[in-house]
Amino acid sequence: MLIRQLDALTEIADHTADVDRRRVLIDQAAMIERAVRQSITEESDRADVLRRYRVLLARIDRERSDQLAAPE
Question: Global pTM?
Answer without folding.
Answer: 0.81
